């Protein structure tokens, strides 16, 4: 049995004391081993009416009871004058009438309509999940209720205050109308629906029972309903009263949860901004090609929560890039600077000219804004949500903070292992500084009163198969590099935060450490029925021409022999070498397009090269019927079934990207775009990098994959990935009780 509260109800709210009392008693009525999930304030919103009547108070899904909707009312018996049908006539309270049973019934029907979208939850056109509405009255005893004559077949089904003991309450629930128990598959599907998995799910069909081709195996990955785990639901559904950081491993669903949280806030602005007529939200990101994806996610989740289109929301949202401009569209910096007196907007070329020595131009222009008198800085939004926060520096995030209203509701999601620029993890201390006593100015330790955690850590990775993710971490850090790691996590709790078990002592330089990753932290659909050695392959070539020709042939096989669609394939060319007077990416685009053209396969290059016949719009990433070719910056935040990382040996090119640390980070990001398969290619077969890849594959391609390495001297590292986590509060089941 699991429990999740999406509520901000307090005892001072109307009916809040009774509702919280009933929530605590409900949780005691179930055993931990039962198959069920109980939600407090499940976030489906009915517009209109009292703020506290817009959502179902309690939603119970149980394998034996089906769906139970419990509406809790804090009325005393004297406050109920009479009951006429579904309408309760009230006395002595502000509310003149109430229809709690009808309200619960309507909300239950609404949830059943979600269930009926799934084939395994329909039979003869009817929903197989039974639904029972009940009214809970914690402030009324059964004897009082019956003395008023509220009995008989027409009387509403209620649970009274003297029936809240664990055994008595369970007995009342067990007396609900007897329907056939849900099968395991039916319960799992219904639970996935309630987890808010439908907006991110694939087609509603069933995957093949015995897949053989890559296309059929990918159907297993993409078909059917997906389920958000309890931690993801907690993060996505609960609205913090102030700032919040979300740290998640690659593929943990950060972008989904940022969009989900934005939609949740849009659908129920009265919960978090009751005194604001039209709350304003910004959702920002760094990768332009994320625009359509994150907009679509927000729209789908808003419809899930409200039943309406996003344009009908009572709050306003700006889904905008971090920079923005006249040609590129709206952006956070563009919006803020145009509202600051005495500071002019700079395009990227302007900033490049004005700040030639500053690597991060957005940081430089953000500092210009922050240097303006504080009274000139506008409060443009009531909340800002930032995806890909590792790509933004502290100046930009401080600019975001300054553009907020008083609650400082800045919510950012990050994974410093995917950082392509700054090498500092965006912890509160790094971002916002500390006072003279060393205390962080923005404290994100602990929990908000009657609310969510201030910091969440997400260990589970859903996108990439376990061997592939482990390889990405090993190669991204250089754990098996001849000269030792370039960067590494040097704390046991740091590895645990990424979902690994570590056997080793970091105090003993040169000693062996062994990494393992529990299967439950990489719950990939192919984990139990696909050979681990086939997720990641590696090949080196004597020339670039040979590499391109071979990759083109593998793409042909993927499409025409293995059943993948062209848009399921993503090619990421690394390297800074110029070839035949062209940049590496121009050369790869030209030669790969030529090779694929022989197979009648089209190439979609997603970089803004106006001279390229295949380059597309900044906001578009994939095109139906075309293989995607992308640089690493545009690939960030996106994914594909099969990834080809070309020129991976460029990790050793000392003149490219300034540092090996930067090059390793790019390699990590490229590898973790894969949802199923990744092929790593390069030239110079004698390069030590290719030996390193083979050493990693030898260990991760076992049924029980491991990574072994020698503990380095931290003084030899270019970067330690893990900040002090002593004050970070992790989430567990107890946080949902």
Descriptors:
single chain, 737 residues, alpha/beta, Rossmann fold, six-stranded mixed β-sheet, six-stranded parallel β-sheet, disordered C terminus, nucleotide-binding
Give a verbal description of the structure.
This protein is α/β, with parallel strands linked by helices. The protein has 22 helices and 28 strands. The strands form seven sheets. The protein has a six-stranded mixed beta sheet with strand order 1-2-3-4-10-11, sandwiched between helices. It is globular. The C terminus is likely disordered. InterPro entries: DNA_helicase_UvrD/REP (IPR000212), NERD (IPR011528), P-loop_NTPase (IPR027417). Pfam families: NERD.
Mean pLDDT: 89
Beta-strand percent range: 15-25%
The Rg value, from CA coordinates, equals: 28 Å
Task: Name the poorly predicted regions.
Answer: 420-424, 610-616, 723-737
Whole-number tally of structural domains: 3
Helix fraction?
A: 25-40%
User: Helix/strand-derived class?
Assistant: alpha/beta
For the secondary structure, the number of strands is: 28
| Name given to the CATH homologous superfamily of the largest domain | P-loop containing nucleotide triphosphate hydrolases
Distance between the termini: 11 Å
Tally of alpha and pi helices: 22
């Amino acid at each position: 049995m699991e429990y999740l509260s999406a509520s901000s109800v307090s005892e001072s709210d109307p009916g809040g004391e009774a509702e919280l009392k009933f929530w605590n008693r409900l949780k005691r009525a179930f055993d931990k081993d039962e198959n069920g999930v109980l939600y407090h304030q499940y976030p489906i919103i009915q517009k209109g009416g009292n703020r506290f009547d817009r959502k179902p108070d309690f939603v119970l899904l149980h394998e034996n009871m089906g769906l139970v909707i419990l509406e809790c009312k804090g009325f005393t018996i004297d406050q109920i004058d009479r009951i006429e049908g579904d309408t309760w006539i009230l006395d002595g309270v502000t509310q003149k009438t109430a229809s709690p049973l009808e309200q619960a019934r309507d909300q239950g029907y609404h949830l059943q309509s979600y269930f009926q979208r799934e084939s395994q939850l329909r039979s003869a056109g009817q929903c197989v999940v039974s639904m029972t509405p009940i009214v809970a009255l914690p402030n009324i005893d059964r004897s009082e209720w019956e003395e008023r004559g509220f009995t008989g077949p027409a009387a509403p089904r209620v649970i009274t205050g003297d029936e809240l003991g664990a055994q008595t309450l369970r007995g009342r629930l067990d007396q609900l109308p007897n329907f056939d128990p849900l099968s395991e598959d039916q319960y799992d599907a219904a639970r996935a629906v309630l987890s808010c998995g439908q907006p991110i799910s694939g087609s509603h069909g069933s995957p093949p029972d015995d897949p053989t081709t890559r296309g059929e195996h990918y159907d297993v990955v993409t078909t059917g309903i997906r389920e958000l785990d309890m931690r993801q639901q907690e993060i996505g559904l609960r609205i913090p009263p102030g700032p919040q950081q979300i740290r998640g491993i690659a593929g943990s669903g950060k972008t989904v949860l940022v969009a989900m949280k934005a939609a949740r806030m849009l659908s129920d602005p009265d919960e978090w901004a009751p005194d604001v007529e039209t709350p304003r939200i910004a959702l920002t990101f760094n990768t332009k090609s994320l625009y359509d994806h994150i907009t679509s996610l927000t729209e789908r989740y808003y419809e899930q929560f409200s039943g309406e289109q996003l344009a009908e929301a009572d709050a306003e949202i700006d889904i905008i890039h971090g920079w923005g401009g006249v040609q590129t569209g709206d952006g956070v910096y563009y919006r803020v600077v145009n509202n600051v007196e005495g500071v002019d907007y700079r395009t990227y070329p302007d900033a490049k000219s004005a700040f030639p020595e500053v690597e991060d131009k957005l940081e430089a222009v953000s500092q210009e804004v922050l240097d303006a008198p504080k009274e000139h800085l506008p409060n443009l939004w009531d909340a800002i949500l930032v995806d890909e926060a590792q790509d933004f520096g502290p100046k930009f995030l401080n600019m975001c903070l300054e553009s907020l209203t008083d609650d400082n509701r800045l919510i950012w999601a990050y994974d410093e292992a995917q950082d392509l620029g700054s090498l500092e993890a965006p912890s509160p201390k790094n971002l916002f500084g500390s006072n003279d006593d060393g205390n962080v100015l923005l404290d994100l330790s602990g929990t908000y009163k009657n609310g969510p955690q201030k910091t969440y850590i997400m260990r589970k990775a859903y996108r990439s198969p376990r061997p592939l993710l482990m390889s990405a971490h090993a190669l991204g850090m250089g754990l098996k590099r001849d000269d030792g790691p370039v960067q590494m996590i040097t704390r046991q709790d740091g590895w645990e935060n990424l979902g690994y078990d570590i056997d080793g002592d970091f105090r003993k330089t040169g000693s062996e450490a062994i990494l393992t990753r529990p299967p439950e932290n990489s719950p990939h659909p192919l984990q139990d029925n696909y050979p681990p050695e086939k997720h990641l392959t590696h090949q080196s070539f004597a020339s670039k021409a040979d590499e391109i020709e071979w990759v083109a042939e593998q793409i042909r096989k993927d499409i025409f022999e293995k059943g993948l669609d062209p848009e399921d394939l993503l090619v990421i060319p690394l390297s800074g070498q110029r070839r035949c007077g062209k940049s590496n990416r121009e050369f790869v685009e030209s030669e790969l397009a030529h090779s694929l053209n022989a197979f009648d396969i089209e190439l979609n290059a997603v970089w803004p090269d106006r001279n390229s016949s295949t380059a597309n719009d900044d906001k578009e990433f994939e095109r139906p019927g075309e293989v995607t070719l992308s640089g690493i910056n545009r690939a960030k935040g996106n994914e594909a079934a099969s990834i080809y990382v070309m020129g991976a040996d460029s990790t050793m090119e000392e003149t490219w990207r300034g540092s090996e640390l930067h090059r390793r980070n790019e390699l990590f990001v490229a590898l973790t775009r894969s949802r199923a398969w990744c092929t790593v290619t390069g030239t110079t077969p004698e390069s030590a990098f290719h030996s390193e890849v083979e050493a990693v594959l030898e260990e991760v391609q076992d049924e029980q994959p491991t990574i072994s390495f020698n503990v380095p001297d931290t003084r030899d590292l270019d970067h330690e990935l893990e900040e002090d986590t002593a004050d970070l509060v992790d989430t567990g089941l107890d946080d949902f009780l």
